[in-house]
Write a structure and sequence with these properties.
The chain has 320 residues and is α/β, with parallel strands linked by helices. It is 40% helix and 10% strand. The protein folds into 3 domains: 10-55; 72-117; 138-311, Ribonuclease H-like superfamily/Ribonuclease H (Nucleotidyltransferase, domain 5), CATH 3.30.420. The chain has helices spanning 10-21, 27-33, 38-51, 72-85, 89-96, 100-109, 154-157, 198-214, 233-241, 258-272, 280-296; strands spanning 138-146, 174-182, 188-193, 221-224, 245-248.
C-alpha cells in the first residue's frame, strides 16, 4: 500500500526507471521531470536494473536483523498460554515476565485476534454472517424488563426504597419486550406485552409480519431460541399460515440469535436505563421516539455506520 503523500506510484517509478535505464536520461534530469530527489531517482533506477518491474513495489520497513527481538521460545510460550487459558496481554505479561506491549505485539505477529473478537466457548475468531436481502431472516426474542412504579424506582429513590419488583404481591411487575429484527438491515419492531405465552408470541408474529410488509419486506424465515412458547403448535401453525419457515437456535448457543440480543442491550443502554424515569408510563412514552431514532437516524456500527432504514430499498422516511 502506497503512502498517501508518495510522489510516485509503482507505475510512476517504472516510468522514471525506464527513462534512466532504457532511454539514457541523466539522473538529475529524471529527478526533475518526476519531481523527486536525486537519491530517490537513483534508488528506483537501481532497483529496476537489478529486479526489473517487480522491484518497483514497496518493501517492508522491518529491519533484517533484530538482536533485541523476543526469543522464539518465549514467543511460543506466550502463544501457548493464550490458546490454553484464553488470557489477554496484561496477564500474559505477568506470567512470562515481559511487558504487556511485548505480549500484544507477539499476539499480533501470530495473527491471534483480541479476546473480544473470539467465541468464548471455542476461542475461534467470531465469524459474522448476514443475509443478502431484507426479510430472508428475522430474529425474534423477548426481553424481560422490570416496570417502574409511580414515583420512580431505585434509580430515583435509591435501592432501599425503590425495589418493589422483588415483592410479587405489591410489585409493579414486569414488561415483556417482544422484538423482531431483520438480519440484513437491522430494522427493528418492538412491542411491550404483558407476558410471553404462546398465544401472545404468535399474535406478535402476525403484527410484526404486517409491519415489515408495510415497509416492503416479506418475511421468509424467523429465528428464535428454544423457549416454551416457540416450540408449541401455536407458533408452528402461525408460521405455516404466514408462509414463514421457523428456525431455532441450538441449545445453549444464544450467540446464534446475537443480533437481536445485541439490539436489546442497545435498547437498555440508550432508552430503558438512559435516564431516571418517575413512572413506567413516562418511560414507555419515550420509546416510540427512540425506536424511530434507531431505525431511521442512528448510525449502526454492524452495517458500516449506515442506518437500518437505508438498507431497505425505497423505504419512506429514511431521509427525513
Amino acid at each position: 500500500m502506497f503512502h498517501r503523500n508518495a510522489p510516485l506510484t509503482a507505475t510512476g517509478r517504472l516510468r522514471l526507471a525506464r527513462c534512466v535505464i532504457n532511454d539514457g536520461w541523466p539522473l538529475r534530469r529524471a529527478a526533475e521531470r518526476f519531481q523527486v530527489s536525486h537519491t530517490t531517482a537513483a534508488r528506483w533506477a537501481g532497483r529496476y536494473r537489478k529486479h526489473g518491474p517487480a522491484g518497483m513495489q514497496d518493501r517492508s520497513s522491518c529491519p533484517h536483523h533484530q538482536p533485541r527481538r523476543t526469543p522464539d521460545t518465549l514467543e511460543e510460550r506466550v502463544v501457548r498460554l493464550r490458546r490454553e487459558h484464553r488470557i489477554g496481554p496484561v496477564r500474559l505479561a505477568a506470567r512470562c515476565n515481559i511487558a504487556a506491549s511485548t505480549a500484544h505485539r507477539i499476539l499480533h505477529r501470530h495473527h491471534l485476534p483480541a479476546l473480544a473478537a473470539t467465541d468464548r466457548a471455542t476461542s475461534e475468531p467470531v465469524r459474522r454472517f448476514e443475509r443478502a436481502q431484507p426479510g430472508e431472516l428475522v430474529h425474534i426474542d423477548v426481553k424481560k424488563l422490570g416496570r417502574i412504579p409511580d414515583g420512580g424506582g431505585h434509580k430515583v429513590l435509591g435501592r432501599a426504597a425503590g425495589s418493589p419488583n422483588k415483592d410479587r404481591r405489591r410489585g409493579a411487575g414486569y414488561a415483556y419486550l417482544h422484538t423482531a429484527l431483520d438480519d440484513h438491515s437491522r430494522l427493528a419492531y418492538t412491542e411491550d406485552l404483558p407476558d410471553e405465552k404462546a398465544a401472545t408470541c404468535a399474535a406478535f408474529l402476525r403484527r410484526a409480519t404486517a409491519w415489515f410488509a408495510a415497509r416492503g419486506i416479506t418475511v421468509e424465515r424467523v429465528l428464535t431460541d428454544n423457549a416454551w412458547a416457540y416450540t408449541k403448535n401455536t407458533w408452528r401453525d402461525t408460521c405455516r399460515d404466514l408462509a414463514i419457515s421457523p428456525r431455532w437456535t441450538r441449545p445453549w448457543r444464544p450467540q446464534t440469535n446475537g443480533k437481536v440480543e445485541r439490539f436489546h442491550r442497545t435498547l437498555l443502554d440508550e432508552w430503558a436505563y438512559h435516564r431516571p424515569y418517575t413512572s413506567d408510563g413516562e418511560r414507555q412514552a419515550a420509546f416510540p421516539d427512540w425506536l424511530d431514532w434507531y431505525n431511521y437516524h442512528r448510525p449502526h456500527t454492524g452495517i458500516s455506520g449506515h442506518t437500518p432504514a437505508s438498507r431497505v430499498t425505497n423505504l419512506s422516511g429514511q431521509h427525513t
